[in-house]
Amino acid sequence: MQKLPILLSILIPTYNYDVFSLVENLYKQAIKADIAFEILVFDDASQKNFNNPKINELAHCSFTVLEKNIGRSAIRNLLAKSAKYEWLLLLDADVFPVNDTFISTYIEQTKSSDFKYFSGGIAYKNERPEKDKILRWKYGHHREALLYKDVLKGKISYMIINILAHKTVFEKVGFDEKIRFYGYEDIIFTYEIMKLFEVSFIDNPVFHLNEDTSEVFLTKAKTSMETLHFLIHNNSIDVNKVKIAKVYMKLKKIGLRPIFSFLHRLFKKKMEKNLLSAKPSLFLFDLYRLGYLCSL
Predict the structure, then answer these.
(1) Could you state, in order of their start, the residue ranges of all structural domains in the chain?
(2) Phi, psi for 34 (deg, rounded to 5)
(3) Which of 14, 101, 102, 176 is the most exposed place for a label (fewest CB within 10 A)?
(4) Which helix (H) or strand (E) holds 35?
(5) Cα separation of 181 and 183, whole Å?
(6) Residue 163, SS3?
(7) Integer CA distances (angstroms), 291 to 132, 147, 194, 267, 285, in order
(8) Exposed, middle or buried, 40 (CB in 10 Å: 0-12/13-18/19+)?
(9) Which strands, in side-by-side order, build the sheet including 95-97?
(10) 73: closest CA among 188, 184, 179, 193?
(11) Is the separation of the CB atoms in 289 and 244 below 8 Å?
């Protein structure tokens, strides 16, 4: 059978996460699609490798452990530079295709349109997780999982958890390597992409399997605010593109930032009690993050 004229590099950065089942699924889908492909998994100097070394036993697949941790942005840039094929499918480690036509759907898009950048979206399973993981699930379910009908209404997702781009895109736009830690590398990257390329938002989602406990997610939320604070004060982000940054700058302009910082310290424990409970409020989560940002 003649090979389809599609050359695909599937790129997955990971850190302390078992991605073998994901890679195995993508491998089977790529074989079924009858395309030339490679799957590159770069591990950012994890303490645990799990089943990941087994990836090297699959044809056209490789698992590489970096000697030192280089951060969330740099590892994605390194993967893109290491890819040998024309189309790059970039996925987070903690995802899994919703459909067994995931790869073939992307392939059809590259053949039937002139777009160079596609965003397939994410989904969350409806069943509620354990009580200590509700906050992450609720935030993802209500804030991150944009349905295709919402995209058609004009909503835009800045997430880079599931994107397909032509290699020429990454030759012009890379991830900001000043951002080593959690938060906002996706927004800056996508915003720069949209300055130069037309983005196609399609209905080809992956499940986000993130199993962070509420306590871990709350810690990550604070880290993201520290990242945002750094970006704001180094003029590295358009505050008008980030709602919480826009509010922060308004509070700062009218002199209310110290008041919000004080209120955060005053009500911090009470808010945390709610956020770590079985019924966390996303409104309180927003106030908590804003207050923490104001306190930095």
Answers:
(1) 7-211, 215-295
(2) 60, 55
(3) 101
(4) none
(5) 7
(6) strand
(7) 23, 30, 30, 10, 10
(8) buried
(9) 95-97, 206-208, 122-123
(10) 179
(11) yes
CB 44 within 8 Å of CB 14: yes
Q: Which residue has the tokens 């990941």?
A: 52
Residue located via tokens 């906002």: 184
As a whole number of angstroms, the distance between CA 33 and CA 3 comes to 9
How far apart are the C-alpha atoms of 192 and 60, rounded to whole Å? 31
DSSP string, 99-137: STTHHHHHHHHHHH---SEEE--EE--SS---GGGHHHH
Token pair 């699930």 is found at 137
pLDDT digits (tens, 9 = 90+) for 102-153: 999 999 999 888 899 999 988 888 888 888 999 999 998 888 876 555 655 5
DSSP conformational letter for 262: H
**241-291: per-residue pLDDT in tens?**
889 999 999 999 999 999 999 999 999 999 999 999 999 999 999 999 999
Beta bridge mates, 294: none
Q: Does residue 281 contact residue 143 with C-beta atoms inside 8 Å?
A: no
Query: Residue 194 contacts by C-beta under 8 Å, 6 or more apart in sequence?
Result: none
Q: Which of 48, 45, 56, 53 has its CA nearest to residue 78?
A: 45
d(CA 26, CA 29): 5
Its CATH architecture, for the domain 7-211, is Alpha-Beta Complex (3.90)
Q: Decide: 25 and 39 in contact? Cβ < 8 Å.
A: no
Closest by CA position to 9, among listed 158, 165, 160, 162: 165
Cα separation, 167 vs 163, in Å, equals: 12
Dist CA 95 CA 264 (whole Å):
34
Kindly state the tokens that stand for 199.
């983005």
Closest Cα partner for 168 from 101, 237, 83? 83
pTM for this predicted structure: 0.89
